[in-house]
Amino acid sequence: MSNKFLTLACIRGNESLSPRPHYPSMPKYPKGASEKNMEGSEAKAMFSVFGMTCSACAGSVEKAIKRLPGIREAVVDVLNNRAQVLYFPTYVNEETIRETIEDVGFQATLIQDKMKERSSEVCRISINGMTCTSCSTTVESALQAIPGVQKAQVALATEEAEVHYDPKILSYNQLQETIEHTGFEAVLISTGEERSKIHLRIEGVRTDNSMRMLEKSLQALPGVQEIDMDRSIYKFSLSYKPDVTGPRDFIEVIESTGSGRYKAMIYPEDGGRDAHRQEEIKQYYRSFLWSLVFTIPVFLTSMVFMYISCIKHALDTKVVNMLNIGMILRWVLSTPVLFIIGRRFYTGSYKALRHGSANMDVLIALGTNAAYFYSVYTVLRAATSPNFRGTDFFETSSMLISFILLGKYLEVLAKGKTSEAIAKLMNLAPETATLLTLDNNGIVIGEDEIDSQLIQKNDVIKIIPGAKVACDGFVNWGQSHVNESMITGEARPVAKKKGDTVIGGTVNENGVLHIKATRVGSESALAQIVRLVESAQMAKAPVQKFADHISKYFVPLVIIFSFSTWLAWFLAGKCHGYPKSWIPSSMDSFELALQFGISVMVIACPCALGLATPTAVMVGTGVGASQGVLIKGGQALESAHKVNCIVFDKTGTLTIGKPVVVNTRLLKNMVLREFYELVAATEVNSEHPLAKAIVEYAKKFREDEENRGWPKAQDFVSITGHGVKAIVRNKEIIVGNRSLMLDHNIAIPNDADDMLAETEDMAQTGILVSIDRELIGVLAISDPLKPGAQAVISILKSMKVRSIMVTGDNWGTANSIAKEVGIEAVIAEAKPEQKAAKVKDLQASGHIVAMVGDGINDSPALVAADVGMAIGAGTDIAIEAADIVLMKSNLEDVITAIDLSRKTFSRIRLNYIWALGYNLLGIPIAAGFLFPSSGFRLPPWIAGAAMASSSVSVVFSSLLLKNYRRPKILNTLSIQEIKYPKGVSAEEKNVQGSEAKAMFSVMGMTCSACAGSVEKAIKRLPGIREAVVDVLNNRAQVLYFPSFVNEETIRETIEDVGFQATLIQDEMNERSSQVCRIRINGMTCTSCSTTVESALQAIQGVQKAQVALATEEAEVHYDPKILSYNQLLETIEHTGFEAVLISTGEDRSKIHLKIEGFRTDNSMRMIGNSLQALPGVQEIDMDPSVNKFSLSYKPDVTGPRNFIKVIESTGSGRFKAMIFPEEGGRDSHRKEEIRQYYRSFLWSLIFTIPVFLTSMVFMYIPGIKHGLDTKVVNMLSIGEILRWVLSTPVQFIIGRRFYTGSYKALRHGSANMDVLIALGTNAAYFYSVYSVLRAATSQDFKGTDFFETSSMLISFILLGKYLEVLAKGKTSEAIAKLMDLAPETATLLTLDNNGNVMREEEIDSRLIEKNDVIKIIPGAKVASDGFVIWGQSHVNESMITGEARPVAKRKGDTVIGGTVNENGVLHVKATRVGSESALSQIVRLVESAQMAKAPVQKFADRISKYFVPLVIILSFSTWLAWFLAGKFHGYPKSWIPSSMDSFQLALQFGISVMVIACPCALGLATPTAVMVGTGVGASQGILIKGGQALESAHKVNCIVFDKTGTLTVGKPVVVNTRLLKNMVLQEFYELIAATEVNSEHPLAKAIVEYAKKFREDGENPAWPEARDFVSITGHGVKAIVRSKEIIVGNKSLMLDQNIAIPIDVEDMLTETEEMAQTGILVSIDGELTGVLAISDPLKPGAQDVISLLKSMKVRSIMVTGDNWGTANSIAKEVGIETVIAEAKPEQKAEKVKDLQASGHIVAMVGDGINDSPALVAADVGMAIGAGTDIAIEAADIVLMKSNLEDVITAIDLSRKTFSRIRLNYIWALGYNLLGIPIAAGALFPSTGFRLPPWIAGAAMAASSLSVVLCSLLLKYYKRPKMLDTLEIRGITVE
Q: What family does the database annotate (predicted)?
């Protein structure tokens, strides 16, 4: 365990590789070299090592390196393929090391400049004077504001700061100065964690010269880094390298410098944090005692002596006027309490207020000052007045301070207890140690007792029984038991012998040990544990933010409330608001009010809130450390208490992680000791873990275990993946697996076979041992379960925590272990990134996930999990990555960690309830809430005591956690010892020239195997770029290079395969159709979009036009031969809207370049001509005003870098070309629109607010009203003129957009929302103008203007539009996110003719051209589509496909632009760039989907045609009805408001109807929901092609599934082999594969693929030659291989060849058919030899998906072209009842139509070309993403992840989207149907309620906004919870 923490120092110190060495290093210095001549000559090198697959490989590399002379240390990291070596350059160089690695069999490359030191240090500072959260927040903010500070944390509970800073930018002194500047005392604790430091005290120094002399002597020592001197106390502080020197060297140098007159010793420590805490306690105690000395007399004179008549008489004796002796005494005694003893509160409040914050000191100072200075006023009044009677409150101020000091004293006393865990850890180190001096032979020649701080690396220390181990190290001599419970929490003593590691601070139990020191000082395990616990106690839990947030406002609020309390009681007293009897006889109403105010001030306690979390976290982490559970801070504690799902790694976590021999069975009489002697002698030469397990077990049979010497093994051979063999004692020993024995023709008896089968069933590995070619024994090796694993899993279940096992091991072993331990969910064969992906999947499904692991391969998952728990015995990387370290490596500590976190957070909740409850209850009581009813009031001194006690109680509440005991259920676990199992690509060619395309008609193809044969034959020809064969349409399309091959050669090749081929001429002409995308600015509602759409569709040559209001874009399909896109733009402009071109088609690549350096137009023309001459350039557009060139080109022929090269070479270097800066497209337009609406709204407010105030507010303020009513001309007042002047710019300047919009709409015969707004506001405005003119010309006219109506209407509508465009921008975030995936730059590689990299260049990713080679480093985005030509890695494709797990990539694999490279470096050859890339196509698909209208949208379009005209008619009718009713007295005059007449009332109703109606809400109901829905689908890996697909999918009640590739994986695999004759399986498959390799049939490929597993050269095997090969179509193949006739095929082929088929073989064939498998017979030389079963396995989760569909009431049907037997078997297995088998493609489509005819809404799910007719015929076609392009093209929905569960997600998403659309329509229609009648005054007669026009306008604006926000809620869509319960494991092969 110590090694883990020891190595952590290495990680922090130099960022080296983290895995610890497998083998001890060779001698520290090379033979013959002395330590002195090696000083300072050490070097470090990092190598990239490829080819390692396991820890055994890493061990081989490490051992080989360490055998070299001059190697100091070597560490090999198999996960990252790295080796780090420390070496002495005088003895060995980097090239020798590299060659050594390659000699072992791995490829090695030196990595330059990898090990630079990081520029970061950690400084810890003690801060004195903080009292509450406000103080700590102030300091933290000040520190974080300093440049160079990377992270700062200030903990109130520990009164410390931990600052991560860049020492190159600032020093720790600046940090201290900053803290001092904030008003607190700063004391440095430590300045970094990467250096060793010691403080020495020197005695005998007399002069400064002596100090300087000593300094120079010390500075000359090697390894000394820094020296600080403090001459006043003769102190030297030295930083040094512990590997080179140490404190004893310093003392020796000092004492030898002055001829013995100087004496050096460790500087006595002042106790650090503990000393400061003790001093603080003493200070508070002294202050409290002194305050009591003065306060008790004050208390007695005011509270007690007043009841003792004689004393009372003396105290009441008058001195001057009404001033008595008692008053003077109290004044004199309370003054020192307030200003001397209590000065800390003044200084504290001054510092806080100086930095703009208010803390608890402010409250105390204000409260005590209020009481004191009022009392002083009373005393002075009494002294100057002969009849003044007042009461002083001196006792209040002094008692307040006394009680608060008592509270602070108790608080610091209790807070000291919270950090006892650290104090206990620090006290573990012994004070002294016994240093041994050894001679060259290792014999002890002297002992010396030294201070333990003087121990240096490589010292040998003697540890006697009962003594503490003085430092980390390893046992050099002796054996004993060591109690490590104080470090690991493990109670049982651990046996220690020579070579074992020990940890400093542990206790030696019985024997004497000699320890060699390896880690001392700050590097020791104990020091690192202390640092870890300190950091944990510093780290804030997220819940702490709650207290921090409250603290900002707490004190100011209390001050306001205190003042309000005083004022309320004072005014109530003055105004006789309560009886005089309530006032105590000794007070007046002012004094009573003052007491209440002071009580409120001093009872409020922000400290209790601030201490609630940190104290509990401190105690919790301390308790955890004492239990062996190291918790790294509050974040980990908080997350752990919510955990409901734990993911366990297997090896080393659930199991012990070390293989052991668990059983031995001998097949022959032999002495077991002799048997293991021979086996161990053979295996000792192997590095394999199983070999080591056997050797370790063999030691038990040896007496000389310590100095073992095995017999010599000659002719040793290691057969990779099989075993070993050697000659030992003249006997041939073979140890290995079954195949090794068969290869050596060693017979395996039946009982040995049974033993092997039994071991495999029990998750064990069976090893066979042969001696002299006879099988002698069987060994069973297992990685046994950890003690108590089953019980822990069972307890977790009872705690409602789900357990999952994720392992890289095989499925068999994984399932066996999981079954044994009781885990139901298993993921096997998982790579490290797949483990992390599984964790993320669980998190996405709503789980709070903990990951428990121990290895490097677990670290990604440990980091990804909410809580990572590392096994203490695991690797350093795992421990570093984890949040919690389980020191004892016991699984039950997982339960302890979770239980402790739950208990801690229960305590935090309790603390918060107390702290908040105290304030919420205490403040009202202090304010006198109970006084009126009960007469109870809280004197200020009692309130102060209560405040002090609240903080103390919170701290004591947290301290109760110290009594934590782990769950009782764990005590019942019988954890004894380890429980053993029961029973003991073809490479891309560089071709030049232009590419051509040819299409052939190919007749005679019947299946995909035929198509495969044709495709393979074509691709074998030279010069073929690509070939695609479509069996459905009998077509073959070929891309080729005419300089290498011609069309006739291709045609002949097809005919040679056996099919008739004809070249189709002119098939590939460009289509006469292009797609143009245009942005349209100015549309406001559905009426606008319908107008534009109609205008576009009326143009000749337009094939289809769609206009989307939500995106404000048009997509037009047009014939470029008939019209140009300019005509489309002109048409839109003519309809009255602004048109901006986005793109002009999807068939051409286009680039925009900016040219700098122009002087004349002639230069432009010259460059234009140069570019036009380039091959592949199609069109050039020039814009001289901005020096812009737009070029359309063929990407196969040329590209943007060629253009730049031509431009820059044209003008002799004076021209400079670059990509034209983009304006941001849709996003920038959206932002500009938002800015415009925002500006318009602000300007409208500037004018509207004064209009509103003059008409609505100032009329109620007499003075202002009088001024506004002042007449100017006749009845015209100043107010009317002001309103007219202010509302006019709002109406005609700010509101002009509504005029232009309505004009454009009316000009084209339609009416939109602008028409309604313009009519409504104009009616109000022009009536008001009429009213003003009448008032100016008439002496008796009394009218009301409505200027406020028009201006407020426009203001509210602008606000609504601003919020609407803001929200609409969010609906298209999916496209923005997709577009952001493309990287900005790429690294272009230049290769020589041999493919070697000549140079690298960083370019703009838009400059990538086809066939460029791009370098992708780990963590970078793939810059373009292409394929890998070098390297291997894992690529995260989740952003494109939605599949969370990274995908392995190697040479020949395709990659997608925008995906992220995870770990390795890749060289990618670009195939698709620009608009051709997959990312661009997905963006276009999603854009088209968001453009496409759902059928339900037609409903809104239909309404919008009539909506506005109807509203205008209704508005006019409303006005007319009310006007006539008023004229003819149809309602009482009392209904008319006093400020109006009947005309004005009617006008208001009419305008309200006009402006409340909202067509926009209807228009946005569908498109916004469809936009968000399709965007969400894309993010989930489901590409939905528009609203039609979404609408149909939500109605689906029947799904037709294809079988192959949809329900099954679509790739046949061999699942069973049965031999009918004794034969080695490898030889059997050698003959079959040699025959089948010549066939193109899928079953033949499956057999060959399976056969590779038996070959060592599995990647590119060379099979024996097959002569006379014959393929019998539909039956099988035959050939002569190694002079044997091999026939492989079906039953009918065997019968045709007269080969007898036994009855048991017939039964086997029947059995395979029943299991949906294909039986293949194999005959050798006319005799039936074997039966192969081949199957296409079911996809993971297929059964669950069908079951879930049934529960959703969706019927499932399977339609397949396969035979009925296989079809029925698959259907039965998956749970489908209806099956159609042997169906041709057209029959699948017919079945879909039959289902539709019977009333079903049908979805078809398929993946192949043969499914495309059915995909088109179905209501919804769903294509599997891994399927063919034709299927994907034909489908409506593409399932990118190829997971069947996405069928359910697609249906569920469509249902949720259409629920949202219905809700939108209900709201939009309901709003209009309800709002219009209310606006028309329907409620006015009964309730008197009417809707002013400006409120109606605000309601209209809000309706559109609410629809958009309602749609945006879809962004939070989560797939159905039932899918999270699916157990999607791997493919099950039976």
A: Belongs to the cation transport ATPase (P-type) (TC 3.A.3) family. Type IB subfamily.
Q: Where are the beta strands (DSSP E) in 497-573?
A: 501-502, 507-508, 513-519
Q: Where are the alpha helices (DSSP H) in 1254-1345?
A: 1262-1268, 1278-1289, 1296-1307, 1313-1337
> Over pLDDT 90: what percentage of the chain?
5
Residue 582 contacts residue 595 (beta carbons within 8 Å): no
Contact residues for 780 (Cβ-Cβ < 8 A; gap 6+):
661, 662, 663, 664, 665, 755, 759, 762, 764, 765, 766, 767, 983, 984
Q: Answer yes or no: 1602 catalytic.
A: yes
Could you tell me the pLDDT band of residue 1929, with boundaries at 50, 70 and 90? very low
The terminus-to-terminus CA distance of the chain in angstroms comes to 43
Residue 1607 backbone class (left: φ over 0; alpha: ψ -120 to 50; beta: rest): alpha
Give the integer Cα–Cα distance in Å for 1127 and 121.
66
| pLDDT, position 1117 | 84
Tokens representing 356 are 């703009």
Domains of the chain and any CATH numbers: 17-111 (3.30.70.100), 121-268 (3.30.70.100), 421-538 (2.70.150.10), 630-655+785-886 (3.40.50.1000), 660-782 (3.40.1110.10), 996-1064 (3.30.70.100), 1074-1221 (3.30.70.100), 1227-1297+1315-1368 (no CATH), 1383-1472 (2.70.150.10), 1615-1735 (3.40.1110.10)
Listing DSSP states for 1529-1598 in one string gives: T-S-GGGS-TT--HHHHHHHHHHHHHHH--HHHHHHHHHHHHHHHHHHHHHTTEEE-SHHHHHHHTT--E
d(CA 1531, CA 618): 76
Distances (CA, A) of 1314 to 1295, 1318, 1357, 1691: 10, 6, 10, 80
Our CA dihedral for 722, 727, 732, 734, rounded to 10 degrees, sits at -20
pLDDT 10s digits, 658-689: 788 888 888 887 777 788 889 999 988 877 77
Cα separation of 1411 and 1388, whole Å?
A: 11
Q: How far apart are CA 1664 and CA 759, in angstroms?
A: 35
pLDDT, tens digit, 9 for 90 and up, residues 1545-1585 = 888 888 788 777 766 677 677 777 877 888 788 778 788 87
Catalytic residue among 472, 743, 1602, 1852: 1602
Query: What SS3 state is found at 850?
Result: strand
Top-confidence range, 308-312, 536-540, 755-759 = 755-759
Q: What is the mean pLDDT of the chain?
A: 78
Q: How far apart are CA 1730 and CA 1716, in angstroms?
A: 19
Nearest partner of 1625 among 1645, 1644, 1653, 1649, judged by Cα: 1653
Cβ neighbours, 10 Å, residue 1110: 22
Output b/e per residue, 1859-1875; b: 16+ Cβ within 10 A: ebbebbbebbbebbeeb
Distance CA 64, CA 52 (A): 14
Packing angle of the helix pair 892-926, 589-603 (nearest 10 deg): 170
Residue 1722 clears pLDDT 90, i.e. is over it: yes
C-alpha–C-alpha distance, residues 163 and 1533, integer Å: 77
> Does the pLDDT at position 1451 exceed 50?
yes
* Range list of β-strands (E), 358-470: 432-438, 444-451, 460-463
CA–CA gap between residue 1528 and residue 1541 (Å, rounded): 13
Closest to 200 (Cα-Cα) out of 140, 154, 264, 252: 264
What is the crossing angle of helices 606-626 and 544-574, to 10°?
A: 150
Other Cβ atoms within 10 Å of 302 Cβ, number? 24
Beta carbons within 8 Å of 1253's beta carbon, 6+ residues apart? none
- At position 334, the amino acid (one-letter code) is S
Q: Does pLDDT of 1500 surpass 60?
A: yes
Average pLDDT over residues 585-599: 79
Structure tokens, 316:
């009441």
